[in-house]
């Protein structure tokens, strides 16, 4: 549930209230305090600065500087994937109920911070107020859905029928390992948090490469993951261009699964390279 006293969804986009308007104004003020700064990206829980900064400006007004973001290189992708691989076994062996609890806290923190996160989305990609609010709550709900699936299926470990008393068989969900998430500009938090949350709750580790028009909201998602207790080796965020950081992630031999949202042509390139 959002920090409001009511549920925000796309179905309530025509709704209005003094509480919502005041909350959103407060969120804008907080979001603006984050604008115009230099930001690192995060590998294995540590800030990383390459010395190469790129400006991101708001599509609402190009006088508004969202921030200057360090640009991840191919070697940074290698380090993030290696750290995710090193943490994969311990995260997989974390009891599934504990993973559900942690990702549930991620969803709750997204909802608690809905106003400032929505303001970031609005300024960073140009969504209107209620579309931004709806997307942020959608991000939380996607994670809750995956947590519910794990709960409903008891961690996807199911005893099967026995043909004899000596036989004991189970169907058990096993994670792939390291999952890459390459998210788009038009749903910068929903299509980062949703795929990442689904992968994490199932026991995978994640490397996120957000759109160049979604760097700040991706870093705010990283802060939420950290604050909720996701281990530092389980979630990494790389801010950088698609042609370098995105290409390196999509073509990395140690990436076991990948979610990409973008153009058809690039998507087919990713599909062909990853499937090898």
Topology summary:
Layout: H1 18-34, E1 37-39, E2 41-43, E3 46-48, E4 53-57, E5 65-70, H2 74-93, H3 96-112, H4 114-125, H5 129-152, E6 157-159, E7 170-172, E8 178-182, H6 190-201, E9 205-209, H7 215-228, E10 235-237, H8 242-250, E11 257-260, H9 264-274
Parallel strand pairs: 1-5, 8-9, 8-11, 9-10
Antiparallel strand pairs: 2-3, 4-5, 6-7
Helix pairs in contact: 1-4, 2-8, 3-5, 3-7, 4-5, 5-6
Description:
- By secondary structure, the protein is an alpha/beta fold.
- It has helices at residues 18-34, 74-93, 96-112, 114-125, 129-152, 190-201, 215-228, 242-250, 264-274; strands at 37-39, 41-43, 46-48, 53-57, 65-70, 157-159, 170-172, 178-182, 205-209, 235-237, 257-260.
- The strands form four sheets. A four-stranded parallel beta sheet has the order 10-9-8-11, with helices on both faces.
- Strand 4 and strand 5 (65-70) form a beta hairpin.
- Helix 5 runs parallel beside helix 6 (190-201).
- It is globular.
- The model has no long low-confidence stretch (mean pLDDT 93).
Summarize the structure in short:
Helices cover 49% and strands 16% of the residues. It has nine helices and eleven strands. The radius of gyration is 19 Å and the shape is globular.
